[in-house]
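thread: overnight batch results

M.L. [08:02]
morning all. the overnight job finished for the chain we discussed friday. pasting input first so we're all looking at the same thing
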Amino acid sequence: MLDQRALVLNRHWVPIGTTSVRTALCLLYRAAARAVDPEDYTLHDFDSWTSLRVAEEEPCIRSVTFRVRVPEVVLLTRYSSVPHRKVTFSRKNIYRRDRYTCQYCSAKPPLSDLSVDHIVPRSLGGRSSWTNCVLSCLRCNRKKANRTLAEAGMRLLKPAVEPTWTPCITVPLGHRRTSWEQFISHEYWNVELES
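M.L. [08:03]
and the structure it wrote out:
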């Protein structure tokens, strides 16, 4: 029970992450956070949270003398920022950023006919990064070969940039709770990677 996840909101009620129930209770105890009752949005400090009545079917933490409800959402009392996260550089995310389209000729061939091309070839010191890798069809990749764009007489349709898609939080699959939907919109769960 203590290793389950609790949603963390900053003091402006913006979701910024998740933490273990164990950590959430420690935050409550240290008065660094308040527990949010998802039914009526009332805030509770540690004493008022531990004094709440716990229904039989409700998840709880048991001790010898009392039972404590599992906090599903906590509100930080002082922290007001939103952490900035970056999109992971990966082959899959390059395909998403470039929308499965060749960045030289705008063709949309089957996945088996697409590859990742280094704008500045690795043999010339090019690195694998957001600004040096683009999606290319096999025909354009062969045409460009191991040359720079100028040497191959080719141009990109648009510059290779790092995606700006940055969700406020990342929630591991399987940890989503119904009570969190009041704080995280439906669009978050269905967001597409954009450039």
